[in-house]
Amino acid sequence: MTTIGFYDTKSYDRTFFESAARAELVQWRFHEFHLSTETAATASGAQAVCVFVNDRLDRPCLEALQRGGVRLIALRCAGFNNVDLVAAQALGLVVTRVPAYSPHAVAEHALGLLLTLNRKIHRAYNRVREHNFSLDGLVGFDICGKTVGVVGTGKIGRITAQIYRGFEAKVTAYDPVPLPDWAEARGVNYTDLDTVLATSDILTLHLPLTPDTHHLLNERTLARLKPGAFIINTSRGKLIDTTALISHLKSGHLGGVALDVYEEEEGIFFEDHSSQVLQDDELNLLLSFPNVLITSHQAFLTHEALGEIARVTTENILKLGSGQPFLPTTILTPVAVP
User: Fold this and answer.
1) Catalytic (active site) residue 297
2) Distance in angstroms (rounded) separating the CA atoms of residues 148 and 170
3) How far, in Å, CA of 252 to CA of 256, rounded?
4) pLDDT digits (tens, 9 = 90+) for 19-52
5) Where is 189: in which H helix or E strand?
6) Does 263 participate in catalysis according to the annotation?
């Protein structure tokens, strides 16, 4: 039997992971707290740990895990910027992730954010519940005929582009590694990033967080955006410089912003803070803008995605116990390409 320390556990995690493997094969140790250097001792005796985006696996944490007998770090997500891969390799720890669980889930949520923000559905919902049926202030725009800029055309970005084409929008795209055959078949036009920024009515981000993409949208690049443009980010919070974003919202340069991720979401997202004073001043300010919509990193949260996350993660854990090779597309190394 393989013992797994499972961190940052939510109710839906238990439901899907307990169903993914027979109880006689896997012993889950579910913890609601995050994994860090301070909590790594709780993994002692486990052969693997299963972690999420806000667990912090730096070198001291990894060293403590290794001393406790851990051999596998199983990320139940696609992102891995919270793991020191160089240290993991040096310590002989295998790191796996779930590179693609449901690209449709994230792409559909991104579009849902735009539809909600543009047509003021969230505001209309609250009004009607108070028996206010006025339409003042609820004017939106047609997506049909607008230019949508897709930055990043991996699986999620491509599905997003295809959905917008279904709305009869013009789609331009930027990616360091373009896919011309796909673009031609789908009616998508690749161009440079400056052109995407300057011509997009809607800009949607679908790329990983790397040193090159950190603060991709900053004071300088935000200024290049078409006046009145909408920004949608369901990828990584640190793709956007929050201070610069707020500046362009306050100036009226941006038409609207919808975020499922936030630059400093660690310790805030996935938790209930409704009885506390939120200490993040920039997040408080963003929440006060009428043309900003924020969800709490829930784009992945569908039955299909959760089932795939549990299946892939558990399969790698079972392979650890049986000595079989790990799923090849899931293994991370310091030179892994997202």
Assistant:
1) yes
2) 6
3) 9
4) 998 777 899 999 999 999 999 999 999 999 999 9
5) strand 188-190
6) no
Catalytic residue among 108, 263, 265, 308: 265
H-run or E-run covering 250: helix 242-250
pTM score: 0.90
Determine which one of 56, 158, 236, 248 is catalytic. Answer: 236
100 phi, psi to nearest 5 deg? -150, 105
- Domains delineated in the chain: 2-101+302-332 (3.40.50.720), 103-294 (3.40.50.720)
The end-to-end CA distance of the chain, in Å, is: 32
Total count of residues recorded for the chain: 338
CA angle (115, 119, 122) in 5-degree steps = 85
Q: Is 265 a catalytic residue?
A: yes
Whole-number Å distance between alpha carbons of 193 and 203 = 11
Report the C-alpha gap between 140 and 142 in whole angstroms. 7
pLDDT of residue 335: 67
